[in-house]
Amino acid sequence: MPDAEVHKSWCGIHLAAAVLIISFVLGGVSFSAPPGNKSPAVSAPSKVAVQNTKPSVPASLLPVATVDEEEKIISLINKALPSVVNIVGSKLDQNGNKEVITRGTGFVVDPKGLLLTNRHVVSQDNLTYTVFFSDGSKYLATILGRDPLNDLAIVQILGDKFPALPLANSDKIRIGQTVVAIGNSLGRYSNTVTKGIISGLGRSVAASDNITGQTETLDDVIQTDAAINLGNSGGPLLNSKGEVLGINTAIEQSGRGVGFAIPINDAKKVLESYSHFGRIVRPYLGVRYVTVTSDIQDEFKLSYDYGALINAGELASGPAVVPGSPAEKAGLKTGDVILGVNGVLVRGNITLLKLIQQKKPGDFITLLVARGKAVLNIEATIVELPAYKP
């Protein structure tokens, strides 16, 4: 992971008490893994036709609510499919033939041809990206921006008016609500649709990119039991109204029916930033941290059971306090616990990441910091997060 991506809370193996980390992979599909890729490809078993030994029930005999719900889901899928695209990354081989390297998913968010997808789907600058719609039409894609903080990217295609998906307010998601995931499953089965529920919120997971082999931590993501397979990355996670709640991003590697999506409100911030600045701008403090719980408090013998412990973790690519960052200039140190920002405590669902992301470059902030038995007020100036480099 590049050192630029330092706002993400880290939960390594030795910090497993904070967040259960098993093994997760980002849902892109690579057909030509680069040398040194330490993340093995994860494939799902092929489905075969199985004779149903139970008698079918005519729709006329099903409860009205069941039939109505089924028709509602079918209707929203039919409306959404024209807006969901396959994104294929390719290059010419030594013989001048086109070689497909990656496949993923995306979806239209603006009729003028603006698309959202995962950053890892379009992370390689040496590839040509082509977008395929369900009606067979295809367009060359331009990558407008890659989010240096989150696994998001903005893609542009040129052409006629495109069907865009409506975006929901992901802050209003409830555990147990019905969701539908659409994507280019396994890079072979376009427009694959799966149904499930929201099974968790505010998750933090360590995910490895099956294409680049990099590992990154995804914070505050949505957990769902709707099947998300390799190739589904960048596809929409829809609510029962057909609105986008999140962007399908990662799966649990052992195939236990656990998938993760980035909340669409995070993507809205990316779109707003690009619209305002012409690029994706993110505020930056410059620390790696783990969210404090009672278990972390016991492990590190801390005085508080909340806050953000500045700690790099075993798998981080750099120190907990990034050299030259606002955090270093302010005097923050490894082992400090950031208890609050501008009077707001880092507690419960209010994470350090969320508080920093509410700021903009140039903002002055006051951090409430526990250092040993002392509690300090430390001032820092937020700057722009360095650009992402794949």
TrEMBL record:
One of its GO terms (biological process) is proteolysis. Keywords: Hydrolase, Membrane, Protease, Transmembrane, Transmembrane helix. Pfam families: PDZ_6 (PF17820), Trypsin_2 (PF13365). This is PDZ domain-containing protein. InterPro entries: Chloro_Bact_Ser_Proteases (IPR051201), PDZ (IPR001478), PDZ_6 (IPR041489), PDZ_sf (IPR036034), Peptidase_S1_PA (IPR009003), Peptidase_S1C (IPR001940). Residues 289-373 form the PDZ domain. Gene3D superfamilies: 2.30.42.10, 2.40.10.120. GO terms for molecular function: serine-type endopeptidase activity. The chain crosses the membrane at residues 12-33.
